[in-house]
Amino acid sequence: MNPRLYDKNIEGKCFKFCFPDISISGSLFPIFFPLRTPVCVQPGIPLIVHLWRCCGSTKVWYEWCVSSPVSTPVQNPNGRSYWVGL
């Protein structure tokens, strides 16, 4: 996988791409979803990640966790480490 390419499948219908060196109208900008503890994934074993976009009255943030091959706690709960103000 090209690390410069970000793709998103929205409800199985829409794909959007981001290339840092190219401006594409309507594209999403790249985001980094760190894990507090690294997860080792062996070749051929699927990595299952869950992402949630959360909204409050004054901010928007993402929360995420891994459920396979191991489970992690939810990262960035309530936008604790990163959020965008409205």
UniProtKB/TrEMBL annotation:
SUPFAM superfamilies: S-adenosyl-L-methionine-dependent methyltransferases. Gene3D superfamilies: Hnrnp arginine n-methyltransferase1. Residues 27-84 form the PRMT5 oligomerisation domain. Keywords: S-adenosyl-L-methionine. One of its GO terms (molecular function) is protein-arginine N-methyltransferase activity. It comes from the Eukaryota. PANTHER family: PROTEIN ARGININE N-METHYLTRANSFERASE 5. This is PRMT5 oligomerisation domain-containing protein. It comes from Coffea canephora (Robusta coffee).
